[in-house]
Amino acid sequence: MARACMSKTHNLAALMRLSDLELRIEIQTAATADPLQGLHLCHELLNAEQYYPTRRGLNQLVGREVERIGQQLTQQPENIK
User: Which whole-number Å values give the CA distances from 19 to 3, 30, 55, in the listed order?
Assistant: First the structure.
């Protein structure tokens, strides 16, 4: 899993230009398809925050989405294989 977090898989420059609402929708769309993908996107956004100083409130927005994804994961039944 650590290797996946080191890779850059999203076009962060384009995502950073989105409004808060649009970015929230992008995160939610990724999390709906796969919650781990949503968390990966959040991780990439937070890692890139230092390169986009004009992007205000990113930490709070991403934090709320991570909490929402966490709640979604805890409410899922555990898959036993």
Answer: 29, 17, 10
Residue 26: HSE in the Cβ half-sphere, 13 Å Cα cutoff? 19
Mean pLDDT of the region 59-81 = 87
The whole-model pTM stands at 0.80
Select from 9, 12, 20 the least CA-distant residue to 52: 12
- pLDDT of amino acid 77: 74
Residue 46, exposed/middle/buried by CB under 10 A (0-12, 13-18, 19+)?
middle
CB atoms within 10 A of CB 55: 18
Candidates 23, 29, 34, 33; CA nearest to 63 is: 23
Rounded Cα distance, 8 and 27, in Å: 15
- Look-up: residue for tokens 């999390």? 31
